[in-house]
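Just scan my protein:

——
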Amino acid sequence: MLEVFFEHDKETISFCEHLFQYNKRIELYWRTHEEWGNHLQLEYGKAGIITETAAQSMVDVFVIHRLADMINGIIKDDYYYSNTEEIDRIADIALWLFYGEDGDSRHVRKGKDPSQLLKSIITGNLENADIIHFDSIVTFQTKIFKDQLIHLVGLAIDEFKREEDHQAFIDSLREFIVTRKCSYSTVHVLQGNPFTFFKPNGKRFTRMELRLLMHNEPLYMVGLDEEELNLAPLVAMAPKKITIYGDHPSEPKTLTVINVFQEKADFKPYSSFPFFNYLKNKN
């Protein structure tokens, strides 16, 4: 038998819900203890199964009810942020890093999984005692986990700063474009590495034409150089309309162009490209 104490009713209910979600064969008895709050008694035939189930359920309780507050506390107390909007954005990124199963979040946190560390801490406590106080574990046994969480919040702050720098770069490009004379009313763009650019009549821009256009504009003022052949040509031309054709609307270079030019930029599937004859003839 395993005895577990929770101070807060919501956490107790959450623990029970997750416990039965993982294993409906566990017998549970719940009563109130005057000093220690909610007292749960868990019974199951095999000790290992109840330990695994209880440990994962406690991790779920912590993630649902405690994680956000701990992250916010770290942002304020360890990294000294006080601006509410900045705290909220950093917390969102930190939670994405914590939960994320996508390649980007795994790459940023270098494959580490803080929830597994938390689970191992709780499992160790369950294996060494028959009576467990959830609040005691959170207060006194999670230093290693919190250290890893502090590191993760640091990574989130790095991502936040990169986002800020990127947005400042985008804003500077928008301001620059407003001041430029439009060289072409419409530019058609085919996705690729680099992009391929076409004039309103369907003729392809040659590499020499692109370099001349970029050479005639002070792109260095906004941090672009003439070797960048995706965004820089469009900034130099400052067209009134850009249509990008391809099969990857979320491709990063494409998203950047759309972010910079906003309503002036449009994305269409590759099959909608209107100048395939010019493309085949390479004119």
